[in-house]
Amino acid sequence: MNQNIEIQIPTLEYLENFNLIKSKQTVNLLKNYDEYWINKPSSFNNSFYSKINHIGQIDTSKITSYCGVRPIITSPNLEKIILNNKITKNINTIEFGLWYTPINKSVKNKLTIEYNQNTKSWSLANTNQYQIAPITWYYNEIENLLLSQKILFYSPILFKQNFSFQGDFQKTDLYAILNSSFIKEKLTTQAPKIYSLHI
Prior knowledge:
The chain is mainly beta and 199 residues long. The chain contains four helices and 16 strands.
């Protein structure tokens, strides 16, 4: 099932066409309004990438800064995923996969991806303050994709400045994280485990 899954981040055009930034604010797992990356290089220069800020405006941040991640799942097998999971018809959402959610409202730290230069690995931080719960996705039948309802975690586009970077999201550290065997399998089929992610 997971072999043909690709995980991306939303494009501005997608969010605008389907009115998904109409409400202007998006919440993270802590239920705070926050900003998140969109798949759009900055027109300023390749050291910056586009994001939707906490009031729904298009903004930019440095590619090495932390920002929210709302994954999009695409797959030729998406219909099978939908059939195997219950859709809430009135708002067209689906619970699919398991991820971390705060244990209580007193949690203040955001769930972030940390990079270890020595071991060349990524790991999830602050997971001791989180428990496992189903992920809610918006199901878009026209585009045949799932978009995470909430910001799931925080990550840079690139952990280290790369001056040859030309803005191609598929060549970023964040894309590698989203499409590694760890995230691809643990995000979509079973409870994640806390261990380092090697690419």
